[in-house]
Design brief:
The protein starts with 8 loop residues before the first strand and ends in a 7-residue tail after the last strand. It has nine helices and 19 strands. The longest helix has 17 residues, at 160-176. The chain is of the alpha/beta class. Helices cover 23% and strands 26% of the residues. Strands 3, 4, 5, 10, 11, 18 and 19 form a seven-stranded mixed β-sheet that branches. A six-stranded parallel β-sheet has the order 14-13-12-15-16-17. A two-stranded antiparallel ribbon has the order 1-2.
């Protein structure tokens, strides 16, 4: 059996609910025959990380090292791993294991995040009982199927947000079949939304960007939007009613806003939720019958979808707008993201000088 090279992984863990993390180390699970060990170079901060360490989604097991936008180099591989070599630059997203069997109702449909045997990158347990820890660390061990080669055309520092934010917005566009000529709305121009504009535009769609911040108008147009709508401006909103084929919601909209969103859609349009707002949504059956609008949601992407996301991103030069922080300034970065001040994704950088 191949032995890992880093047998005590140092990282930054949340010890209790809140946004503060502190140095902590753990003994990783033994390197399996289908696993790889990755020396982490960059790790993105995702909103899910904050929800988890703040215990907003309940069930957090402390100490918890979060982070599921990971980029680094393979330093060890299990004996059955054939598609990766030591030294390969790879990315890891929000999932580190799925059965990937042909008789699995989820994996067989490229929906392996829903696999009953799936293991997510952090705050999850492997079947052997070991806790999964994420990317706010010097290294990580994962199933090799969930370590993806980063295309040469993507600068590694920009790759982490593609592993979660990128695939989160691109996956439903692929599944829904967004194409040239479609009119696609993006509401919430932040960490997810600024990428969603780029993917929709690259697919040939006419992109309508919705935001409460008029100062984002120019930036949205540069990213590829054809129309910008200030949602506080009634005339601008009225001008796009009954015109959208798709609306991707990337912000935590209030539950009562969804009734208005339906009026933005053309017949048989689809509203896709990519965020988790608090509260319940309330609709009458009549609204759906009269409009023929569907409301659905999307998780992340499986192995095949994540590969397509990276390939498409490289082909169309789709990159996140990022702010960079040394890993030892992680608490500053978490506070900035938590306060909503990051434009638009924060990326942590490991170095030999980082104090882990």
């Amino acid at each position: 059996m191949v032995q890992g090279k880093i047998n005590e992984i140092r990282g930054w863990a949340a010890m209790e609910p809140g946004i503060k993390v502190e140095p902590w180390s753990y003994t990783p699970r033994p390197l399996g025959e289908n696993d790889v060990e990755i020396k982490i170079e960059y790790s993105g901060i995702c909103g899910s990380d904050l929800h988890t360490i703040k215990q907003e989604w309940n069930g957090t097991s402390y100490p918890a090292i979060v982070g599921h936008e990971i980029v680094g180099k393979v330093i060890t591989k299990g004996e059955n791993v054939a598609h990766l070599e030591e030294g390969d630059l790879v990315g890891v997203g929000a999932q580190v294991y799925g059965c990937l069997q042909g008789d699995c109702n989820a994996c067989s449909r490229d929906l392996d995040p829903h696999c009953p045997k799936s293991v997510f990158t952090y705050n999850a347990k492997y079947p052997d009982g070991h806790q999964a820890h994420g990317g706010y660390a010097e290294a990580v061990r994962v199933n090799a199927n969930y370590a993806f080669k980063i295309p040469a055309g993507i600068d590694p520092v920009y790759a982490p947000p593609l592993m979660c934010a990128g695939v989160t917005v691109f996956a439903p566009m692929l599944r829904k079949g967004v194409k040239k000529g479609d009119r696609v709305g993006i509401i919430g121009i932040g960490g997810l939304g600024h990428l969603a504009i780029q993917y929709a535009r690259a697919l040939g769609a006419e992109v309508v960007a919705f935001s409460h911040s008029p100062n984002k108008r120019e930036e949205c147009m540069k990213l590829g939007a054809t129309t910008f709508v200030d949602v506080s401006n009634k005339d601008e909103v009225d001008a796009v009613r009954r015109s959208l084929n798709y609306l991707f919601i990337t912000s935590n909209s209030h539950s009562n806003q969804y009734n208005d969103y339906i009026t933005w859609m053309t017949f048989e349009g689809q509203i896709v939720l990519l965020s988790l707002p608090k509260g319940q949504m309330s609709f009458s059956p009549r609204e759906f019958i009269i409009s023929e609008v569907a409301i659905t949601g999307s998780l992340i992407g499986g192995v095949n979808v994540l590969k397509k996301t990276l390939e498409f991103s490289a082909e169309h030069n789709i990159l996140p707008i990022i702010e960079r922080f040394p890993m030892d300034k992680i608490n500053d970065a978490l506070e900035r993201v938590n306060d909503g001040n990051a434009r638009y994704r924060a990326v942590l950088e490991n170095s030999t000088s980082s104090n882990l």
